[in-house]
Please model this.
Amino acid sequence: MTVTQMNFDEYSNETGLTLRLSTDIEAFWQKGVFSSFSGIDQIRINYALFMHHQIQESIVLVTGRTESYLKYQELAFDLYQQGFNVFIIDHRGQGLSQRLLKDNQKGYVKNFDDYAHDLKHFIDEVVAKTTLKNSTDDILTKPHLLAHSMGGAVAVRLMQLYPALVKSAVLTSPMIAVNNGNIPNWLGKAIIYLGDKLNAWFSEEANYFMGQTGYNNPPFAENELCQSEVRYQSFVDIYNKNSEIQLGGVTTHWLKEAIIANKNIFANLHKLTVPILVMQSGIDTIVSNEAQNIFCQQLHQHNPACCPQDKPFTINDAFHELMFEKDQYRSPALKKALGWFREYSA
Model:
């Protein structure tokens, strides 16, 4: 694949993005490799990769809940143009990967760490082996992680379970904990644990948590993900055109697993040995910014290479999805992430 690389700090922008998605980015995307492997319990896990012919550093995109690699075409293009190989995984139960319940709209995972074990297999069997075709240097087979939202929690658990697997990580709006709104944590946990137990007793399949439904896209004016109308509409169009990647709300069991993941993350902070940067969205209603702050404070004490100044790098006034935000928020976030990866490259 031959693509002229952009200069540092030069990324695709909102102006003309719709046209570029159907020209330059589409041409780039068509040259990717799209395949799958068997994850934990033989679940099919789909992925995409984009390799330079010459030796290059690699970034693995670890996506958020409900997301598919199909949504990440602009970001993959930008990262590739900046000189990185790009690998993207669709988590089990979402995107193009195999669904886990009869009702494939339900957000579900049996065990949260299954996400991390799948990711480990992806890095070992796809990322490393593909990279080795271009280089015999083991250092270059270790990728960087760019992980978003739920993918941030998955990335943290991966690095705790398999400490020597990656070089560095950037976590954008990571789901260290879900946002409970005005509900006290103790009450939220009690409701979720009781609901999951009742579900196991009386239902054959995991049920939606209260208020959760099948796939639904709010109008742009009501969305809490990003403030870029062109980027919002572009990924809504992708989901509308590819109904197989649509996913609804979470099950009670998924929420229980998210609580367990949060507990494991804090219990194993000392196992995080690679440099980690946390990026926080200033106006985030999806995940808990307070949990990110506590995570950074405690992690920095264990590993000073993580969370410089013991706090997240905050993009003020940005919504949850930094890499789909307006240029004024997305560009500095992308610049910071790329700077982090270059600092810790071979």
